[in-house]
Amino acid sequence: MKTLKVALLGCGNVGSQVARILIDDAADLTARTGARLELAGIAVRNPEAPRDVELPRELFTTDAEALVESADIVIELMGGLEPARTLILHAIGHGASVVTGNKALLAADGAALYEKADAAGVRLAYEAAVAGAIPILGPIRDSLSGDRITRVLGIVNGTTNYILDAMDTTGAQFADALAEAQRLGYAEADPTADVEGHDAAAKGAILASLAFHTTFEMANVSCEGITGVTAEDIAAAKDAGFVIKLLAIAEKLEADGTEGVSVRVHPTLLPRTHPLAAVHGAFNAVFVEAENAGELMFYGQGAGGTPTASAVMGDVVTVARRLALGGHMGVEAASGHFPALPKELVTTSYSIGLDVADAPGVLSAVAQVFADHGVSIETMRQKSHSDAANASAELRFVTHRAPEAALAATVEAIKGLDVINSVTSVLRVEGV
Amino acid sequence: MKTLKVALLGCGNVGSQVARILIDDAADLTARTGARLELAGIAVRNPEAPRDVELPRELFTTDAEALVESADIVIELMGGLEPARTLILHAIGHGASVVTGNKALLAADGAALYEKADAAGVRLAYEAAVAGAIPILGPIRDSLSGDRITRVLGIVNGTTNYILDAMDTTGAQFADALAEAQRLGYAEADPTADVEGHDAAAKGAILASLAFHTTFEMANVSCEGITGVTAEDIAAAKDAGFVIKLLAIAEKLEADGTEGVSVRVHPTLLPRTHPLAAVHGAFNAVFVEAENAGELMFYGQGAGGTPTASAVMGDVVTVARRLALGGHMGVEAASGHFPALPKELVTTSYSIGLDVADAPGVLSAVAQVFADHGVSIETMRQKSHSDAANASAELRFVTHRAPEAALAATVEAIKGLDVINSVTSVLRVEGV
């Protein structure tokens, strides 16, 4: 029986669980792969640092380069761009297959890495990079390879889903829900990457690249976080039968005669009957629309050391099986190259909240602006403020689908109306 | 570029869509696989029969055997045990890989077919056999191959989910919901295989075999359909925060010192907050519990020609890619052999409905029976009947988890009590 040497780079909360599984479940892994998987070493900056899991001291090394050179499979769980990129290229150069969970690196430089792996005849696998434990990249690459995906909607950031779900359940404002999430360990001390949508944007770019067999750069993702979502937005959405989720939306579309791909991340109203609406707490889910398969959803834990380690090990076993069986590894490089479409060309629908003077003629003035921009209104709800001294009212519109540019222009024009005190909320709506 | 000859056996609602995709999407399929896929022919009993899709007459043949002999990939969509089994063995004998959606054949004889395919170095793929368009077998085989699955709960029959969902929404009795489902085409004229749970049982056996790397025969599935579920059961479940679903439950467990596998199909109460509770209409979903990944769910269309064709084509492309790249195909034969455990050894919890005399001492008599069998009660709800002439009441118990044998014995003993008019309902509860 073949022995495959496995090098582990990084031993944080995911890496330490991967090491544990490689050691504790060795017999099972051999049965699954047809090869013996030998953990050859773990490269870390400080071998003496405390770990989540007790591991034999002699496995640790600070010489990542030498460890990589001896390996058949390299598992990169260091995160960040460097030295991860250099070590992955080093591994590919030495004929090793690579398993990584490094979404930042893949979003920044995935296409170049896939091409190098393909040219070298080795595998570059990265299921753990998107939505943690949820098998999503494999199903898109394999199970849906005979279909055409048209759209992907993902709840791919657990922190923001936890915060929005708490706001929906308790009526809390964003700042309070964030503080509670930080207290419970669902949000980091510096929550920027999560709450501003940057983490979701990286995952959206990876999903789009794979779903549409193209190369989509993270810089082209249009991204808006959840810091502007208020308790009032959530309450108004609830009233109207919606829930607010931070979605990464990847679409293939034709606009102005160009076939292209759009990826955007923003808070989104979804009908409460939509399967994504039932995704609570820090869970993740990816909703896929395909020409033949129709609607699919993949649900599970999007983060955490042990769940993410499951995804890493799935890749390790799949790569090891292929090494045991022989033949070319078969990385799929992008087969099409679709341009990134600016968000202005995408169609969506808006939920618009207005604080208006409570006087006759207001609604008709506002409705005229919608009509002038070719945007039609699906529903309107009016709520007069109980404070009688202040003769104002709140209007909430949900539009039909229209180009983003027309919707944005409508909002700008409404702001210029005399009868408007302020535009209190602009959110996008999907799934209707 | 390599050309791969594809033989299609059967041209019903799935087969005709597969033929359409092979012809219409040929350029895309070539880009995905690195090989040309040529539809060499379609074997049917009657080439003149009308089809869902217009296809070139010259593709049709009645000589399935000769067609199989010329093919690199054989797609078997005839259904039934024979001649499907003989033709699949013929294909394997001629070195062709096989893609099938034939759950009846796989549940009856899968282990022997996988072994033959493995020995011949060809692939036997069958994603379409369970849960239609939902990628579930691939994720279990590949993405979760480095983890240990402990339990699978599946809504794998769209007809019964449609009926139960309609009963839940409208309050209808089973017979009326079935008639409506038949009128709308969600249930067949003879609905036995669906409503008695036989279809779900076949899928449960396939899921268990794959999830636990074993061979599980359909004959060992303990199976109960939904014909006994009443509108009153559904209303009482709703009152208590539950929904009733027909689940196929596959579990690996240790009982009486034996590690084994249990598969059972029965109507099941699930909390309305459970992800499976949000699966409406004819949709399917498979909920997987794994040691490291935690809870995962896969959701989508479980039937229909076009969705199922998507799953078939995913297998075709995956097989074709591997043929284009070379090397052994790598069928995974069962690596463990776990005995089928009788359902008496499984632990579950019961929801029990009783029609009782509305008199003092009844509850204590019933509670004593639970205690005598070591079964503890989680909740009890009492409803006095409004009809005053008839001094009876309804009691609904939900138990804690206990061995199935103890629960069944408890029910038998309760039936013997004088104060009991009848046991109106016995349903199992999961997900609590």
TrEMBL record, chains A, B:
Q: Where is the active site?
A: K203
Q: Which reaction does it catalyse?
A: L-homoserine + NAD(+) = L-aspartate 4-semialdehyde + NADH + H(+); L-homoserine + NADP(+) = L-aspartate 4-semialdehyde + NADPH + H(+)
Q: Name one GO molecular function term.
A: homoserine dehydrogenase activity
PROSITE patterns named in the record? ACT, HOMOSER_DHGENASE
Q: What is its EC number?
A: 1.1.1.3
Q: Which SUPFAM superfamilies match?
A: ACT-like, Glyceraldehyde-3-phosphate dehydrogenase-like, C-terminal domain, NAD(P)-binding Rossmann-fold domains
Q: Which residues form a coiled coil?
A: none
The protein's superkingdom reads: Bacteria
Q: Which UniProt keywords apply?
A: Amino-acid biosynthesis, Methionine biosynthesis, NADP, Oxidoreductase, Sodium, Threonine biosynthesis
- Biological or metabolic pathway of the protein: Amino-acid biosynthesis; L-methionine biosynthesis via de novo pathway; L-homoserine from L-aspartate: step 3/3; Amino-acid biosynthesis; L-threonine biosynthesis; L-threonine from L-aspartate: step 3/5
Q: Which cofactor does it need?
A: a metal cation
List the CDD domains hit by this protein, alphabetically. Answer: ACT_HSDH-Hom
Residues that bind NADP(+): L9, G10, C11, G12, N13, V14, G15, S16
Q: Which residues bind NADPH?
A: K103
Which GO terms of type biological process are on file?
A: methionine biosynthetic process; threonine biosynthetic process
Query: Which sites bind L-homoserine?
Result: E188
Give the matching Pfam families. ACT (PF01842), Homoserine_dh (PF00742), NAD_binding_3 (PF03447)
User: Which residue intervals define the domain ACT in the entry?
Assistant: 351-431
Q: What is the annotated role of this protein in its UniProt record?
A: Catalyzes the conversion of L-aspartate-beta-semialdehyde (L-Asa) to L-homoserine (L-Hse), the third step in the biosynthesis of threonine and methionine from aspartate.
Q: Which family does it belong to?
A: Belongs to the homoserine dehydrogenase family.
For this entry, the protein name equals Homoserine dehydrogenase
Native species: Arthrobacter caoxuetaonis
